[in-house]
Amino acid sequence: MVTGVTPLGPRKIAIRRPPLSARNSAPGRRRTASPAPWQTRGRWVGWGFVGSAMALVPWMWVLATTMPSTTVVSNWSAAWVGLDAMEAVALLGTGVLLLRRDPRYGLGAAVAGTLLAVDAWFDVTTATPGPERTMAIALAAGLELPLAVLCAALGARALRARAPMIDHEMKGGWQSLEGSASDG
User: Is the per-residue pLDDT at 179 higher than 60?
Assistant: First the structure.
């Protein structure tokens, strides 16, 4: 109760405060709720990836010091045909999604670009010195790496197109203005 002045003289005025839930969702107020479970798990998964990357550093040293410089591979053609088949599927999927104007084309472009870069790397590093290596370098520089850069640009463009999403409170939960399901 607060004492205030009214036209009839001093009187006691009752001031009602809104319930706590309404105060937390008022404009300009920060929400004080704890993070959603998927956000907590996401941080642990992120730290798991960071730890995995750090564990690969000593493993690369072990490989560099213990692996032989030459080896005989029994399924050499199957490995290369398989890699090229995966590239073809990724490029086909990306092209079809682009033609359909499906925003998921970025995923296919990212996969295709990665596979093309890996193919260029292994083509050059496994080629024997001489005309075979010259041909591998020419194909990598003239075809595979430019196509990989194009795929990376497409993937980045698709990511930017979907990036910021405005959310608003709706029926007690947060929901996207675009009509997607609740994030929490």
Answer: no
